[in-house]
Each structure stands twice: as C-alpha cells, then as structure tokens.
Amino acid sequence: MVSFKELGLVNTREMFAKAIKGGYAIPAFNFNNMEQLQAIIKASAETKSPVILQVSKGARNYANQTLLRYMAQGAVEYAKELGWEHPQICLHLDHGDSFELCKSCVDFGFSSVMIDASSLPYEENIALTKKVVDYAHQFDVTVEAELGVLAGVEDEVASEVSHYTKPEEVVDFATRTGCDSLAISIGTSHGAYKFTPEQCTRDPKTGRLVPPPLAFDVLDAVMEQLPGFPIVLHGSSSVPQEYVDMINKYGGKLPDAVGIPEEQLRKAAKSAVCKINIDSDSRLAFTAAVRKVLAEKPGEFDPRKYCGPARDLMTELYKHKIINVLGSDGKAE
Ligand SMILES: [Zn+2]
User: Which residue in the list 94, 155, 281, 329 is annotated as catalytic?
Assistant: First the structure.
C-alpha cells in the first residue's frame, strides 16, 4: 500500500472546489509515453496550472501500469526541477471498469479513480460506484462516476449512440454513491470522429463540417439539481483543423474528422464543469509532427528527431488549452 501523498500527488477535492468557484476547469490529459508526459508537465509548469494525468485501459495495456505510475511520480520531481515549487498533479485512472482495478490503483498510489459503470443498469451502476467510493475514501482518494452514455470510441470504451444524462437521476445517484465528481453526457464524444457528416452541417465557404451544439440545457438542469457539484466532460477534444490538414498533407488520411468547438468548451469551463478530458488532440499533434518530419526528411531514422518536434507541438497544444480554453493558468502558483 502506497499513499499518493507520499508521491507528492494531490487528489481532486480542492482542485475542483477552487475551479468551480473560480469559473475555470482543470485539464485532464491522457498519457501513454514519455514525450507526452514531458509535454504535459512542461506546459503545466510553465503556466502554473493544476493538472490531472490520466491513465486509461489502453495506456495500461500499451505502456504498463507500473511504469506509468512511476513516470507520474517522476513527473512531480520533474515539475519541481522546472521551477514549479508546489506542483498540483493528480494521477487518475480513466474509465476504471471494475472494483478490483480501482482498488489496485488506490493501493498503488493513484490519487483519483474513475469507476465507469455507466453501461450497467442504474441500480448496478450505483452499487458498484458506491463500493469503489467506500474503499477509496478510506485513503482520501477521490472518485469520479458516470451517468449517461457517450458515443464514440476511446481505447476499449465504445458506444455507437449517446444517451444524455437524465437530470432527474443525478441527486439520487450522487447522494447514494457518495462520488466526488460526475461525468455526464451532453453531446461530447470519444475519438477524432465525434460526429458523422449526417449529424453536422457543412460550412458553405470552407466545406468543413460544423458539429451540432452541446446540450447546455441538460448541463443547466444538472447544475440546478446539484448546485456546486463537480461535473466532468469526457471526449472534449476539438480536433484542430490545422493538425488534421497537416496529417493529410503529409500522407495521412483523416477525412471529415470533427471535434467539439473550443468556444463551447470555454463556456462549459466557466460553469460547474471543472474537469475537461482531452486526449485525441494530442494524438493528432503528435502524428502531425511525426508525419511532417518523416515526409520532409526521408533519411531520418533517429526517433528523437521526430518525437522531439512531436513533443514540442504537444506542449504548445497543452498550453493553448490551459490558457485559452480552460482558464486554469496561474491557479497553482
Ligand atoms: Zn472518457
């Protein structure tokens, strides 16, 4: 048993309370490799933004959970080395799908876990979430739960259709489970293809897809039911057109990739939404940078020569999200 506190990590309780009061949101960035983690920490340290490092099921399969956990521990020290005196870094399990997995992360030094039982019937979702909460809270580890179903594909989490969260359920759910935050479904979606062309309209000038707006009425109704309760948005990448264009220009093929407009996320960040998950955007930045180098310098075979630029582009992306979308810069001096 290792406590996250020994590792210099923090849970989400204070982070979220401050974010709701201050009208901003905490970035939750997924990481799978060293370059991505370096970019996240560099961006957070340079902007003094609290940050949530997320480990998904896919990341655990790809990079090994033990290695990722020690990397997060190293990230705290790296942040200090970069001159961030009191780093506020949370290590979070993304989409935990069983009590056993959540327990193993709590025991291993994670400061926050998500139990995603949203695909189960309502009462089973409550029972499993409560079981995880009861265990995690003994060690001051915070728990995110989910109500409603997001569309899209994220590692092994996939659903074809979305079901908006029912505002009439949230009080009962939060009260009976004791969860610390709630992921809701209001039209965000996992992956780089958040909407089909049929769901969108097309901008006549650029020919690009314009996605349907998020269901802010559902968010408002949830906030009315649970005033001041931390709300989480998954699947909130914006799929920046510049990265998609770069990928397509240098041999890639991502037709009609579309995400959530940043304007809508900015609006959400000012509300009780205090955690916004962004993963696909950094995948796109990484891929765009690597493709560019390899296309322009076919003789290059040193991974540092293409992973380095990828890291730089991701750092730029994370800083942009922190400063221009979430507003979390300067909140962890
Ligand atoms: Zn998610």
Answer: 94
Q: Is 279 a catalytic residue?
A: no
Structure tokens at 127: 């029972």
**pLDDT value of position 292:** 98
Q: For residue 313, report the distance from its CA to the centre of ligand 1, in Å.
A: 23
Paired with 277 in beta bridges are: 28
pTM above 0.90, yes or no: yes
Please give the helix or strand (H or E) that residue 14 lies within, else none: helix 13-22
pLDDT single digits (tens) 9-57: 999 999 999 999 999 999 999 999 999 999 999 999 999 999 999 999 8
| The three-state (H, E, C) secondary structure of 70-97, written as one string | HHHHHHHHHHHHCCCCCCCEEEEEEEEC
Q: What is the DSSP annotation of 120-178?
A: S-HHHHHHHHHHHHHHHHTTT-EEEEEESB-EEEETTEEESS-B---GGGHHHHHHHH-
Q: How far is the CA of 265 from the centre of ligand 1 (A)?
A: 15
What is the DSSP code (8-state) at residue 187? S
| pLDDT computed for residue 153 by the predictor | 64
Q: Which domain covers residue 60, as residue numbers?
A: 4-239+256-279+313-326
CATH number of the domain bearing residue 119:
3.20.20.70
